[in-house]
Amino acid sequence: MKLPFAENSTNQNERYVGRFAPSPSGPLHLGSLVAALGSYLRARQMSGKWLLRIENIDPPREQKGADTLIKRTLEQHGLCWDDKVIYQHDSHQYYEQALSALFNHGHSYYCQCTRKQRLANPKGQPCPCSELTLASQGSATVLRNTVGIREMTDIALGAIVFNSEMNDDFILRRKDGLYAYQLAVVVDDIHSGITEVVRGADILPATAFQLALYRLFKLPAPVYMHLPLVLGENGQKLSKQNHAPALINERAASNLCSALGILGLNVPLGMTNATVEEILCWAQSNWNEALIGNKANAFDNRIDAPDSI
User: What CA–CA distance (Å, rounded) separates 23 from 86?
Assistant: First the structure.
């Protein structure tokens, strides 16, 4: 299956390319910093590139000016990215190329079901729309997920076994024309030449769907490392949706120390007054993925599927 944007990958000759990809739905919080710091340290230890991608494919969820706040917070915490900032709204042509390739090879179909109808469809059973010839207008584009991704190896968590529901079909483009995360993240990673994805463990279930797309595109998938989540007092993960408090940039050094502790690396007491630059330098010399294994308690080794379609 030919993907024009894959042949012109912006970093295809780089040995290691990582990325941090926040959504502009609000300012960064401690959980965001853990993901950013883990991916940054990994890229720097591997002497590779670290890219910043703003994942703005869902305009209704965007907060005006959030991308500027995100960039400022990263800079204040010493996490400076390489190359130009990537915005997903500049990648629509690549998403369309991928959608066309999948449809033309019979890997996707158009679906006019409501969300309620999709959820009512028995798990493991094909959607009735998959047997029909429907118009693309007013329909969702859905992948026929028949590739059966059942397991993977995570750098930090080891062997991961996915629930059988990961074989269910899933949406690539919604009825309203907005592109689904599963499609956009794979296309963007391919176009940027990403070799390794370091991100929060909340996205681990989605990895099976993303691996299915890589297999259909006949392209090598990046290596994955999923980091522990930061949980609030109520046991829920810190997130913008749960109104997690924004990072205070004036406390950048303290924030970094907290994030490193969550990643399994406790900053020595003698560095309590260290600068951001000194903390990052120390972290690059001492952090490694082996520290994460006992900390990433967000999931066990059997991963349940998110709502697939």
Answer: 12
